[in-house]
Amino acid sequence: MNPQQTMPERVLVTEVGLRDGLQNEPTLLGTQDKAALVRALVAAGVREFELTSFVSPRAVPALADAAELVAALRDIQGVRWTALVPNLRGAQRALEAGVDAVVLFVSASQTHNAKNVNRDIATSLAGFADIARLLEGSGIELRGAIATAFGCPFEGDVDVRVVGDIARAFVDLGARHVSLGDTTGMATPPLVSERILHLREVAPTLSPTLHFHNTRGIGLVNVMQGLSLGVARYESSIGGLGGCPFAPGATGNVASEDLVYLLTEMGIDTGIDLARLIEAAQLATQLMGRSLPAQVSKAGPRLTLSDHAAVATARG
Ligand code: ZN
Known about the structure:
The protein has 316 residues and is an alpha/beta fold. Helix content is 42%, strand content 14%.
């Protein structure tokens, strides 16, 4: 089959820089700085954010202001705010703060899950039932996220059937959206195909989201593979914020401006204006006080032309 036939016309880009990015950055941002960055992204057309995580403030100081940040953005209309929650207490805090969706997360690797939340996969999934009950009738959407869905830095390959079983458990909890997280950048195009095709078989009601890290430089290649399979939901972080706690010096998520550049050039509608997204990336760079890994925010869109006369003059 010609892959072009299944290419989506429209793609939803969820900005995860405020959560996944900042959680893995040494620089702590204040609530007002985070809010300013969110507003710049909203001005560019971003309509969905994974904004924060209602984890213990002691465990993740970078996200200790979760409720304050949601409150600081309350006046913004037409945007969906999602937040990670690790447990029932976190879900209660997210509910009180007024997010639109909570994301429950578990690793597809026992070792990674134990390191992350100190319990095995089955115990994590069993604990989600209480959260699903809490959310019932609240109007707040329950979503799932599967970390290390393409490989684990401790265990190596991750069996696609484990990913499928977890996805089905999320569907049973009422989830329609589950993201496959490439936590340490181990995804490859064949693994993307294998996982998406398996999910279509075992969890056909699910609309999967792909979440790639650019750790090994093929984040956008994996996006292309997802697009060719018709996947229309991707997560990225502005500037490529973030890193990987298990791979020092590694780059973070696929950068939002690089992703939107690719999608725009492919003729796929994202509702996001690239020039304004680059402005948001420049603000992120300024706030973090360092050069970020994204490329399009440095080079500009492809028809950004150099001033020939100025370059010649500069060369003397
Ligand atoms: Zn991630």
